[in-house]
Amino acid sequence: MSSTLDLIRKRISANKFDRNRPLSQAEIRELVEFATQAPSSFNIQHARFVAVTRAADKERLKAVAYGQQKVADAAVTFVVLGDLRGHEKLPGILARSVQAGILDAKTADSWVGMANGMYANAELARDEAIRSASLAAMTLMVAAEAKGLVSGPMIGFDPEGVKRELGISDRYVPVMLLPVGHPAPGNWPRKPRLPVDEVLAFDRGREF
User: How far from 150 is each of 100, 110, 118, 163, CA to CA, in Å?
Assistant: First the structure.
């Protein structure tokens, strides 16, 4: 079994972080660089990250996360955002693929047209922003695990409060908070997962 598969099986959602072991900006940037490798619709790359590292800012974030201490204890708490208008940047994004010889200009233009048509629907745009940002967050979690860190994705927060406290515009939807850092004692072991036969069907759906 490869080390990547081992990491997936051993990852936990942590609640206890070592307050005395910070991460450098370079380490945080590296985690986000790994996160950017995640897939997204049309390669729009909807995910954006606010890395909250200062103690005062983490306390403000904790206050809109129902007082959950892990927000303040983690070396960094990422606010993972989805860009609701990410498709507007697609021409410039695809231009890089055209320049690299991956796509031709005609294909790139067709993708822009399709994306604009799809994501003119606000509900579809929101769904895609959340989906793509979640894929990026999971990629960041696996990267953190590979570097000996732990993470704890959170949906227990007030989205409007987060936006207010950190000056985030309505262009972005807060998808999750993601504390990351070195573990402290007291984390639960990995909780049991459902067996494959309870979650998998071949070829046709069934009542699971």
Answer: 36, 41, 37, 25
